[in-house]
Write a structure and sequence with these properties.
77 residues, 3 strands
Length: 77
């Protein structure tokens, strides 16, 4: 296990996210934080194409090491 904390962000990436998650496993970080969401207030703040479900399955299979967070939108300055 590498002494790395990895942060990955995805939004509607169902076509290629599995390959990306496989690469994360090869890196073998001590912690994996995956953000699902988008900062554009004109669209939903979560994936709508199955990406979120793929992330959740990945997190479930890597309990204690991986977690999913949502993108936090803030008002414009």
């Amino acid at each position: 296990m590498n002494n790395i904390i990895l942060l990955a962000t995805y939004w509607n990436e169902s076509e290629w996210i599995k390959a990306s998650l496989e690469q994360i496993i090869k890196i073998d970080p001590i912690e994996i934080i995956i953000c699902d969401g988008n900062f554009d207030s004109r669209v939903p703040n979560y994936s709508t194409d199955g990406t979120r479900e793929i992330i959740q399955e990945f997190v479930d299979n890597n309990k204690g090491r991986a977690r999913m967070i949502d993108a936090v939108r803030v008002n414009k300055w």
